[in-house]
């Protein structure tokens, strides 16, 4: 160490330098004449580009090579200024030129490529480091193909991140939360280390304070050009992936220019699904907006959630897992384990419809997953409902690793119940709880996965997204059941988090017990389920989705008709309708935002009024109107007002009540947008 402050700083930086072995190997190869003449290092702010250049300078000095450094932060962005600073290297074949913060002088890239660097003597080495990747014209030029090496600089490996924390003297109890926040990002690790060392008692409670967040924002993101650009950044950080369509739905501003701006940012990556930021950028932007503008955060979240929920409903079948993943990703902040084991662009596994010729593969996978009984059950359903099966392969090799099935048995069938105890248990539970009504069905989700992939992997997540999508898109489904092998499966926590209840009964296939996760989609329809998941994110985990709102009633047709008859008698007293069980039915719940008793009264009046549109039912309408809408105290007086014999009046009234019951029951089953039934 020299006797200067600069020497001490250099020594401290050298001690803190960890990792980057691959980059150093490339540099040393070039330094020794075995590589290219220009290295282009790029990565987001704080990723360690300057530290790497300092290490390059040290390696060059050890090799006896003269080093010149150009710092874009200190240089006027002009060709003349650059040449005045770096010109001497043009005369020395041993020179090493290091250009840092190149994003500050990015406008010189074309001049550097076409004018300056071609004048470098053979043997000289240039390293350019900046946030932005090189212009594609470098790679499109055959002359640069062998002369240029591009080095994207990413996060430190886990062991290198720990070594960096060791060098900073971070207490052992703080080693876990720091990398959980910072990943392998060097600047975030160093900032967090400084806080953890200062507050040695923070331990596992460590979280980044606002000073750390603000510093990282400045270094990673900088100042966006406008409030609209910042809003677009916040959406990009919040969503799993961002498309122009998502921006258009969540932003009042023109989405096109903002999307093009996002995709050019050095910390934003593109994939087949859209744009996604560096993990640390995502965390920092999210933390800042939640702290800075919680109301704005909630508004943004609701807009994104609404758009993605609609996309689940309208997506093509092949796009359903991705649409569900994007929607569920919004719930990552609820303290639950991560449901996203891979990056958005990895696509390690692919899903396809199973074909007849895949039966042998299904048997092999099912045998490995659950034994001979499991394979026999899978084969039974594959022959009976082949369209229910999907196959999952490794994208790279095509290796089959899993199957899933969405079984919709039409009714309890003795052969099916005998062949599959799991489906038999589902039917038994449905019959004993709230049986299916006319036109309704139940579904049972099954999966068979090779043991190697049965933990938290991308393929299990992909299957889970598919099954949740099947639930949310189903029409007239009463119950869904998802069967998993064993009580301690990694799916238990996610399915409970999604508000699905594991049944006490454990059906067995051979020696293997299965757990059934059940959900009544009449009690909590898809829209209500989505609202609960969304509300849970805003309010915290609490007692799970089930605690967010009361479940809907699921009456039989006879129970429903009796409740309608009682409610009609209460119409003159609207306040009394609040106690009607109809206020907890789907019929009323779909009129969101309205008081249930008021909504029920409106529905009854509309059902009566609708009878006027049918010439055959006008007489029914008159009987109902006089009896229930005009406040007539007795039926005898109602018959007198209508000028009808009492027996004729009673016949019209009874038929009218039956029509209203039938029309409202039809809407309860099929939704309030469905045309009314015309059966009396």
From TrEMBL:
It comes from the Bacteria. Pfam families: AAA_16 (PF13191). One of its GO terms (molecular function) is ATP binding. Gene3D superfamilies: P-loop containing nucleotide triphosphate hydrolases (3.40.50.300). Residues 17-82 form the Orc1-like AAA ATPase domain. This is ATP-binding protein. Keywords: ATP-binding, Nucleotide-binding. The keyword Hydrolase does not apply. SUPFAM superfamilies: P-loop containing nucleoside triphosphate hydrolases.
């Amino acid at each position: 160490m020299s006797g200067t402050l600069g020497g001490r700083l250099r020594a401290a930086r050298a001690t803190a330098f960890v990792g980057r072995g691959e980059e150093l190997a490339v540099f040393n190869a070039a330094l020794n004449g075995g590589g290219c003449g220009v290295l282009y290092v790029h990565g987001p702010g704080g990723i360690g580009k300057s530290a790497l250049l300092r290490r390059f300078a040290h390696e060059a000095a050890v090799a006896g090579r003269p080093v010149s450094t150009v710092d874009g932060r200190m240089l006027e962005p002009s060709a003349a200024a650059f040449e005045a600073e770096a010109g001497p290297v043009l005369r020395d074949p041993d020179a090493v030129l290091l250009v840092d913060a190149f994003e500050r002088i990015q406008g010189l890239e074309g001049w550097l490529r076409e004018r300056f660097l071609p004048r470098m003597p053979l043997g000289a080495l240039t390293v350019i480091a900046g946030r932005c990747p090189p212009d594609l014209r470098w790679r499109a030029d055959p002359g640069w193909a062998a002369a240029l090496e591009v080095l994207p600089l990413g996060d430190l490996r886990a062991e290198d991140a720990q070594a960096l924390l060791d060098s900073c003297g971070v207490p052992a109890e703080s080693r876990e939360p720091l990398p959980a926040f910072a990943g392998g990002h060097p600047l975030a690790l160093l900032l967090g280390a400084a806080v953890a060392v200062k507050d040695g008692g923070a331990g596992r409670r460590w979280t980044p304070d606002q000073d750390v967040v603000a510093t990282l924002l400045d270094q990673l993101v900088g100042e966006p050009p406008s409030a609209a650009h910042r809003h677009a950044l916040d959406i990009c950080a919040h969503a799993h992936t961002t498309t122009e369509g998502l921006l258009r739905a969540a932003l009042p501003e023109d989405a096109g220019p903002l999307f093009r701006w996002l995709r050019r940012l050095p910390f934003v990556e593109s994939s087949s699904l859209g744009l996604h930021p560096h993990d640390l950028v995502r965390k920092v932007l999210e933390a800042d907006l939640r702290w800075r503008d919680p109301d704005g955060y909630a508004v943004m979240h609701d807009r994104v959630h609404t758009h993605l929920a609609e996309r689940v409903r309208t997506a093509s079948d092949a796009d359903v897992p991705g649409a569900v993943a994007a929607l569920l990703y919004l719930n990552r902040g609820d303290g639950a384990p991560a449901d996203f084991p891979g990056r958005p662009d990895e696509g390690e596994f692919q899903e396809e419809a199973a074909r007849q010729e895949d039966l042998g593969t299904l048997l092999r996978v099912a045998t490995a997953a659950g034994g001979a009984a499991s394979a026999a059950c899978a084969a039974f359903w594959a022959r009976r409902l082949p369209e229910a099966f999907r196959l999952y392969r490794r994208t790279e090799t095509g290796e089959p690793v899993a199957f899933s099935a969405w079984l919709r048995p039409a009714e309890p069938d003795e052969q099916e119940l005998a062949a599959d105890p799991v489906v038999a248990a589902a039917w038994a539970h449905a019959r004993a709880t709230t049986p299916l009504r006319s036109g309704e069905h139940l579904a049972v989700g099954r999966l068979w996965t090779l043991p190697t992939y049965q933990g938290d992997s991308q393929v299990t997540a992909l299957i889970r997204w598919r099954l949740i999508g099947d639930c949310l898109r189903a029409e007239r489904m009463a119950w869904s059941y998802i069967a998993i092998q064993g009580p301690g499966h990694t799916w238990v926590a996610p399915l409970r988090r999604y508000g699905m209840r594991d049944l006490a009964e454990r059906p067995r296939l051979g020696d293997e017990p299965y757990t059934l996760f059940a959900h009544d989609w009449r009690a909590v329809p898809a829209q209500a389920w989505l609202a609960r998941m969304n509300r849970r994110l805003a309010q915290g985990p609490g007692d799970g989705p089930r605690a967010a709102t009361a479940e809907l009633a699921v009456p039989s047709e006879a129970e429903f008709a009796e409740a309608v008859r009682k409610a009609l008698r209460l119409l003159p007293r609207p306040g009394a309708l609040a106690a009607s069980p109809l206020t907890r039915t789907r019929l009323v719940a779909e009129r969101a935002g309205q008081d249930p008793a008021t909504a029920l009264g409106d529905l009854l009046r509309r059902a009566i009024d609708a009878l006027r549109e049918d010439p055959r039912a006008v007489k029914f309408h008159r009987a109902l109107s006089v009896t229930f809408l005009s406040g007539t105290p007795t039926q005898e007086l109602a018959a007198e007002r209508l000028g009808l014999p009492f027996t004729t009046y009673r016949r019209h009234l009874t038929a009218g009540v039956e029509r209203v019951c039938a029309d409202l029951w039809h809407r309860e089953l099929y939704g309030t947008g469905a045309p009314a039934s015309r059966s009396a």
